[in-house]
């Protein structure tokens, strides 16, 4: 990855999210020093706020008054919430099969919603095409300018973890869909190391769904170059939707980060993610989306193989759980 400038300071209430030491779960997970980074504390409830504002800054610098973004929920909510603060109108493209609480929230923020027949990847393609046609800013993943901006935004997570701990942890687990969040966090730690601030770089853990993701599949197959999956190979559910993908737009960056850090990739079934979501609620009082709780589940899996002893581990819990998910969670058990 190329070098990037240091991420901008906290703004709009973004960042500065809590890093909690978990004493109740450390024995279960197998990490003596276990920390939880709570990205659900961002204004719209996920780490996506960091990337959305970074991309909106790019749009504003370019003189755009409208943008197009495809989403299945969290990213669209971030853009819908922050776009008016930047004087920009958000056009949010959503697969028509999604009709949850996030969609109503996006509409409530005043964004213009476009329903798309097909998958998330289809929505990205249409949103990008409409942006070009209408002269809007294309805020979608896979666009180089957005990738750079998002990496800057997510690198701030690494800087905050280092600032709170005073050192770089040994292992950092991150939920993986498109791969941008893991890539940005890794890059932030690498910047700290390259600048002589920290002594080490964490080994990264990509937590994702067992119903498939090309980053995880490529890594576990020993590939250095990411390969797309066939759309027929994935199985999307209400719980794995943030993670499942046949094409990860920033997947090569994430795959590179796993190899460079000598990390791991862990595919997880829905039931396991749901279990850790409920465990975080009962043991720590944290309301965490099952897909986000995958980071904790992945640490447990890796620690069973590696026999972690005196190591420090951070699970990045990327999004809080909406109230409407309770019935779905009960059905997953």
Give a structural overview.
By secondary structure, this protein is an alpha/beta fold. It has 2 domains: 19-46 and 145-332, Rossmann fold (3-Layer(aba) Sandwich); 48-143, Rossmann fold (3-Layer(aba) Sandwich). Helix content is 43%, strand content 15%. The protein is built from 12 helices and 10 strands. The protein has helices at residues 26-29, 48-61, 74-82, 101-108, 120-134, 144-165, 180-194, 214-220, 251-260, 270-284, 290-306, 326-332, and strands spanning 19-21, 33-38, 66-70, 89-95, 112-116, 137-138, 171-175, 203-209, 264-268, 312-317. The strands form 2 sheets. Strands 1-2-10-7-8-9 form a 6-stranded mixed sheet, with helices on both faces. The radius of gyration is 18 Å and the shape is globular. Mean pLDDT is 91; it is low at 1-9 and 324-330.
- How many strands appear in the DSSP assignment? 10
CATH class of the largest domain: Alpha Beta
**Unreliable segments of 5+ consecutive residues:** 1-9, 324-330
The helix-and-strand class reads: alpha/beta
Q: How many independent structural domains?
A: 2
Instruction: Name the beta content range.
Output: 15-25%
Distance between the termini: 41 Å
Question: What would the CATH topology of the largest domain be?
Answer: Rossmann fold
Number of H/I helices: 12
Helix content: 40-55%
Shape: globular
Instruction: List SSEs in N-to-C order.
Output: EHEHEHEHEHEHEHEHHEHHEH
Strand order of the largest sheet: 1-2-10-7-8-9
Mean pLDDT: 91
Radius of gyration: 18 Å
Report the CATH architecture of the largest domain: 3-Layer(aba) Sandwich
Largest sheet properties? 6 strands, mixed
